[in-house]
Amino acid sequence: MSFFGNKRLIIVLVGLVLLITIVGFTSRERSKLSWPEMFLKDTFSVVQGFFYRPAQAVSGFFQGIGDAYDVYEENRALKAGMDQYARMTAELHDLQAENERLRSALQAKDNLVKSYDLRFAEVVARNPDTWNNTITIDKGLKHGIKKDMAVMTAKGLIGRVQSVANFSSTVELLTSYERRNHISAYIQVKLQAANGTTSYQTVSGVIEEYDPQERLLIMRKIPWGQKIEAKQQVVSSGLGGVIPRNLPIGYIVRVEPDDYGLTQTAYIQPSADFSQLNEVMVVERSFTFTPTGELVPNQQTQTPPAPPAAGGGQ
After folding, report:
1. At 188, phi and psi to the nearest 5?
2. Which phi and psi angles does 89 have, rounded to 5°?
3. Any stretches that span the bilayer, and where are they (predicted)?
4. Among 40, 172, 187, 228, which is disulfide-ready with 162 (CB 3.0 to 4.6 Å)?
């Protein structure tokens, strides 16, 4: 029993010595491997290559899916950010435009508040079929709006109140094809004296229609012989008793003689932008006409302006 135990111990010791010898021999740097080493290396390389390529392919497939999902999520986040940026930019531009319009309206109110009562309103409806004819505003009888009151933007006159409900009103525009009411107006002619002083003369006429092709108002019945030039301002005369005086209407583009050569016809570029009507002002003049032609001040005003000369139009 002791012999067999010693024999096993001797075998284990001999094996360890051989193993250490082989490890020491193979761990040295050599120019050429032994054939068992080459056999084992070739065998392991084939086996590793057989399993490595499919494993690498599977790993690359799942890695590609993960990368594609990451790219999709990043792309979706970027699109959401771009959409939000576009919305914020549009809102900012809208607020800037609204701010400019309100500033202009307040400035116009400061210029007109001494002579007229102004009521601010917003355009709530504009039918594409009657785009050039009418608009609907959010003020009516309950807000003091009455028929035939003038309506303007900060830049100039746009029309008059055609009909009134309790909480809304319909405004007939100057560009309306169906407009039958003519507007009496003045052309402000600048005169330069020999001594260098400047004065202004008013030349009367009547705005009768709108040319949709050229987008110009047409003013007729201008006395012959009056020197009318381009860029001269046109304002309301107030002679008709409906449209107040000195509301800006537009600027002269050109002047032509009428068919009979007795008067002149002027083509006017409107001051107001009729394509962008958002906030408007309803103008109540400081006095009204009685059936006998007498001027009566409104309750809101204390001192009526001087009576205008007799004439037709609004």
Report:
1. -90, 105
2. -65, -45
3. none
4. 172
Q: What is the pTM of this model?
A: 0.59
Residue with tokens 């392919």: 57
Long-range contacts of 131-134 (CB under 8 A, 24+ apart): 132/173, 132/175, 132/176, 132/177, 132/210, 132/212, 132/274, 133/172, 133/173, 133/175, 133/176, 133/177, 133/178, 134/162, 134/170, 134/171, 134/172, 134/173, 134/176
Residue at 136: amino acid letter: T
Sequence-distant (≥ 6) Cβ neighbours of residue 264 within 8 angstroms: 205, 222, 223, 224, 226, 228, 255, 256, 257, 258
Domain 113-297: which CATH number of 3.40.50.720, 1.10.150.120, 2.40.10.340, 2.60.40.1220: 2.40.10.340
Q: Give the CA angle between residues 295, 296, 299 to the nearest 5°.
A: 155
3-state SS string for 164-186: ECCCCEEEEECCCCCCCCCEEEE
Closest CA to 298 of 308, 311, 306, 286: 286
